[in-house]
Amino acid sequence: MKSTLKREEKESCSCSRSTKPSHSEASVNLSLSLTFHSTSPNRERRQDWPPVKARLRDTLKGRRLVHRGDESSLFVKVYMEGAPIGRKLDLCAFSGYESLLENLSHMFDTSIICGNRDRKHHVLTYQDKDGDWMMVGDIPWE
Amino acid sequence: MNYFPEEVIEHIFDSIACHKDRNSISLVSKSWHKIERCSRRSVFIGNCYAINPERLIGRFPSLKSLTLKGKPHFADFNLVPHEWGGFVHPWIDALAKARVGLEELRLKRMVVSDESLELLSRSFPNFKSLVLVSCEGFTTDGLASIAANCRHLRELDLQENEIDDHRGQWLNCFPDTCTTLTSLNFACLKGETNLAALERLVARSPNLKSLKVNRAVPLDALTRLMTCAPQLVDLGVGSYENEPDPEAFAKLMAAIEKCTLLRSLSGFSEVAPRCLPAFYPICQNLISLNLSYAAEIQGNHLIKYIQFCKRLQRLWILDSIGDEGLEIVASSCKELQELRVFPSELHGEEDNNAAVTEVGLVAISAGCPKLHSILYFCKQMTNAALITVAKNCPNFIRFRLCILEPNKPDHVTSQSLDEGFGAIVQACKGLRRLSVSGLLTDQVFIYIGMYAEQLEMLSIAFAGDTDKGMLCVLNGCKKLRKLEIRDSPFGNAALLADVDKYETMRSLWMSSCEVTLGGCKRLARNAPWLNVEIINENENSRVERNEEDEREKVDRLYLYRTVVGTRKDAPPCVRIL
Fold first, then answer.
1. A contact test, residue of B109, B162, B298 with most A CBs within 10 A
2. Does residue A19 lie in a domain region?
């Protein structure tokens, strides 16, 4: 995915095709990347319209949640190594890691674990805001 | 002419604070002019390039309080290069050299350096109050100088500034003997805050009425601060917190309960929604609530809180409150005077069902009889709604409507919004400030010129058809002081029709319009008392003077009256004709 986002936005949002840690052939990685909104890549991000001041602009850029009425959603893109097409899902729709894994396994038709790497399974990883690749499952779901 | 000795007249003048009145007084006679100018304590300069420091000091030697404004308003929206100008240093330098007894300095959209702040802090022994709004160019080192050297500092109010945060110890620089603070606002600082130093400072400031902290102050620290400052009237909160544990929440609520004088609340830039209920104990006392940075709090939580703020006079909120939320505000907040609704989605990425429409605006106009100022960002509007609003609220003095999509027509009739805005200007006889948006033809400007007799400031974007529009405004609005126009088809004919008009105005801004270099040159020739500035972002694109095409459209034009001629500090991207 070619990112058309500006530099500031890149800090909290990662490009999902960045370099991945190297593994032996048999083990592959799933990766998650946080993105903001699903905009068409051609949409221009004007800095002078609408007429809002910088502090509000920055506040809105730094938002973690997208609000839709009463619900929140946090959309992420998931890629499986070796497959060029990704899938998109709403993290807020899951209650915990188990249901997330179950869904992803189903979506990608493979078995996935988070935590210890096993040569025969996919491993779920994500890229945090510092750009580091991390294992999913270390921090509490909330 | 004078029946009283000078001292008596001066004494009478002392009770007149309003700038306009004092300006009028000074025109009565030579002796009144002299008495007035020698006794003048407070001066307001709306455009720092209209006059220079030497003439200011020459006329008002007893000056104690100075307000200066620099960049034009559209600088707030990235339309003016950072290096454009508005430097405060020459002012502070001149005031220091003349040993003016400065006590108060308020700056808006000016460039302030650490050196300026250092000089300020050392030059005026009685300095009490520094208010910086939308300024830039300084760091926390400059704040450290102010803290360290201003022995009688009462007010340090930093609003929406771009401050380089060196994560230093500026709060530590307030000496232990500093106990006079009444107002401290550093909400716009982005870095870490020395919490211990802040707590000590607050604890030794018994007169502290206003405290606005930045997001680096977590809720447990806030609890401690409020516990030692229950006399606070104005509080700015802000720190990301996962749901606070019940004990922390209870402590916070207990501290807030004791703040019975609290009337104004703001901040909440990174606060989890479940922290808002901690502020329930004081909600019925609030007269001012600014939740416009509370991007993490959903509409339903906002509504739950606001509906109990029965005495609210001022509300700044994000459009995530929705039309339904505004309907609840309309039925709960009967004392509301000023409302600002800001967009929570800047580029319309998601289909934002929670954004506000004309429905919310009409509800507010119907429910809040004291409403006089509104800034409303919305995704759609209708003439019918605006006509209803005008009927409900003839008392508007400020009406600013921003429909997010440029040129958007009435979404029901597909017509322009001329009639709607026409109704507003016709009904609101006291209207002083207006911003228009949506699909608009020259007709709306005919209405504005005809009816907006008290209008002082007008903002136009993506509107109008021909020069006639701008001409109607310039001819009709006798009290117009500031006109700012962007992306509208007004050109040389309108610009040049009445050059003398600009002497009655503070400034004119035109960007992405149809005015040409030739037109601007002609204006500058005919009006030597104006500074006519052409702003180009890319100075490398300038061709040789004798090759330049006078028919070339000017990207950004800014002109203003001045008594001190061309300024000498313009950067390369600014050309003064």
1. B298
2. no
